[in-house]
Write the structure tokens for this entry.
Amino acid sequence: MKPAGLQPNTIEVYSQATRRIGNYCDCRVENLTTGQLLNYFNYLLEDRSWNVVNRLLIFVKAQGV
């Protein structure tokens, strides 16, 4: 993660998202495939709201994943 210039709260939210994705996919975030991310997004859409998925997409794009 590239925390430079981010607020502490934003860094914490991004860190939590990273941990959750890694735990869900049972692998390091650096090794995630597009399919794994899509599966995770689908899981979130079933279990959470579109807003949660949208914030995660913003995070993923910011990381260049």
In short: The CA atoms of residues 1 and 63 lie 7 Å apart. The radius of gyration is 11 Å. The mean pLDDT is 82.
